[in-house]
Design goal:
single chain; 128 residues; alpha+beta
Amino acid sequence: MVANILTEELINGGKNLLQELDASGIKVNAALWFYFPEEGFWKLMLSFPNVEKEGPKAAYVRVQKALFKLKGTQAPALDDITIARPNAPLVQLLKIAIRTGPGISGIRFSNNVINGQLIPDAYIYRLT
């Protein structure tokens, strides 16, 4: 279920998934909810450093395994998740303005412009 409102349930679900990926030893260098206004929905964007080498399919398999472990708890649906390459333009653009440490943050970033590019709305857990 792709949502048009970022709820506490989605925020907590994204955090739970990131915690599970971290606990499984999977390195995640970017994790954030991003609002796509043209489509009218939020997606949880995850970026893994090895996605260039292994491809997005391997990343989705890792995410699916983590989601399976979270069954019965708050977690996003696989349909709500998109995998981004570490050098994806949106990830690189956001890193200009925000850098977090390797932990899990909770930064709401709304209606901002970075290098002339509007960022309508984002909720950032990690950008390293």
